[in-house]
What does this fold into?
Amino acid sequence: MILRLPYLSFLFSRRAIVAGSALAILLAITLTVSVKLGAFPLSWSQIIATFARRADDVQQMIVLDHRLPRILTAIGAGAAFGLAGAMFQTMLRNPLATPDVIGFSAGASCGALLAMILTGGFILPGALAGGLVTAAAVTALAWHNGLQPYRLILIGIGASLTLSAGADLLMTKIDALTAAEMAKWLIGTLNTRDWSDVRLVWLGLTFLFPLALWLQFPLSRMAMSDDITTGLGLPLSPLRLLVTACAVALVALGVSVAGPLPFVAFVSGPIARRIVRGGSPAMLPAATVGALVTLLADMAARSFPIVQLPAGVCTAMIGAPVLMWLLLVQFRKGTL
It folds into this structure.
């Protein structure tokens, strides 16, 4: 099935359409259940009355000022991480090559943390600057007769470890109360999100998502060998730089509103490709899977008895088994 637009055309398989629709329905169901879930019990009739503006002030505050911004922020941040992960994995032809593995998430986290310490705000500019500086440094170090994927991955892993140590060092320079709050943020949390976070993440996606979809065509060719991609007439190195810039911006966007949620970018692409199949980058399904994983992790964190965990703890619990599975698959293929 081909969708033709004035300047673009998209090829869809029936399986991709069915799988994408199923993921969207599952996300909508999860969103609906998440609105009801919380420490303060609400019935479905009370939730409907809240959206109809017929509920009391307490119910409206709980649903409209606390739960809904948190849910929409989780979906937006998860979509950004899932999309960025799928872009890097496709471009570098390696399911282990994700922003949280090759250092770009760590760079965005360090930039946001430094901006918070120095200015008390400006988290998004700090995260974007940190991610871009890290991407530029890693890319420059990996550049040798063009951008080589395996050099980028190895240097990125070293950068990730270095920047993680840098974040720990920065944490020692602030007071204990602020350090405790920032420690939760560095794990990845959606606590106390508000409508400003919703506007930030969805405004960023409004600009970056169309660019990512436009890049799906060259990305599907970049999944092949370098010789084939170059033979098809695509400027490989400039395209890799453009994909890297777009993906880093998506990572910075997600980090600025939810912290560096671990493994969301890592698991979204492989799960989406496993569901859709066909060998395409599966950008839209990866974004949906990222949103779904983040929302489910936040629901699990909110449901934990006695103490409310950061969502990053739950995403790590989801991502660790997938990491082991991917390592086993790569080992069997002889690519490790």
